[in-house]
Amino acid sequence: MSSKTLIRGGCVLTLGTRTPNFTNADVLVENGNVTEVGPGLRARDAEVVDATDTIVMPGFVDTHRHVCDSLFRNMAVEVEAAPDHYESHYQPDDVYAATLIGLLGALDTGITSIVDWCETGAGKEHVDAALQAHVDSGIRSVFAYGASSWSGFDWGAGLRRLAQAAPLPLVVIAAGPKERPANTETASADWTLARELGLRVHAHATSEVAGLPGKDVTLVHCSRLSDSDLDTVAASGAAVSLTPASEMAGGRGSISIQKLIDRAIRPGLGVDTERLAPGDMFAQMRAAISIQHATYFDLKLAGKAGLPKLLTTRDVIRYATVDGARVAGLSTEVGALEPGRQADLIMLRTDRPNIHPVNDPIGAVVWGMDTSNVDWVFVAGRPVKRNGVVEGDLERARSLAAASRERVAAASGILAITGGAA
Hints:
By secondary structure, the chain is of the alpha/beta class.
């Protein structure tokens, strides 16, 4: 496409603080940035994309995912029953294949930014393969270099290497310290290293926070944190990523969304693992709002006083976009369609029978739409999905993923559990 694109005549949800939403307006993109939003825009030499019968809005931000799990989508039971830890059998080519198909799948659903908490493989080759897949996919990403409890590699040395390497297009490096350190001193040393290197910390927080969070930290899950720990999180200014579908399916308990709301903590949303959860943000938005509404009605039925407010679709769509960008550490770049921001945006069809007629655009996105409504996806002004079809060599990506799945499943024992049908 031209370096200048005019997206014309859509219902525009900017979700910004400086630019209102529009029932019908245009979005002008130049050199990867949003430059104007409003009705009746004109631009010489711009390529025009017709946005009639669509909602134009910021792309979704997935604030936490283990992308390499994509080889074993929807296979949580089989994977957990396998005799060997399947990730220990990944070769660099498998990491590339799993990451590429996972990221293309995310783009297909309207996710334009993703935090990949990557812990697969001990060697430099594994990490470089994952990073190459990030670049090849065309998605905007935060690559959180994960410290696995099983691989035994030198996480600190690997983190230093990544921090000092030449930057990659659309990729930001972050730190993913161990989930359950042996002691607070170990955790503190890992977090101190990340901060010395100027990297954001993305840490699983399932049982405690150890007094370490700050504004440069994203805490994931938080489903079992005590009230005092949540008070610490709120006071520190740390960000929180909730992965509602996988937390419920994985037995971590009900997500603590009402406790976050009570403390004015606005979370981002994530998928976590496609072994357990759908890989799109429509499912995560509906899970989050449904859980909070269920909490409200349980309290009401029990005759409790001082009921909380019902979570609104306006809140939840921001969790998936503006708040998600802040949680991912990308708040100055994406999350809203406003001049000066990167042109990461999606076009959602409103003429599909699953959603038409649209009475409330935001309600339609949160409650009614699904991945079939995602028509166009732009990252940094470049279309990565056009007229419902993801750009790139999808046949190659599928072929690589199928071959890697078969090899890793056989090596780890998953094939024996499934009777050979991985």
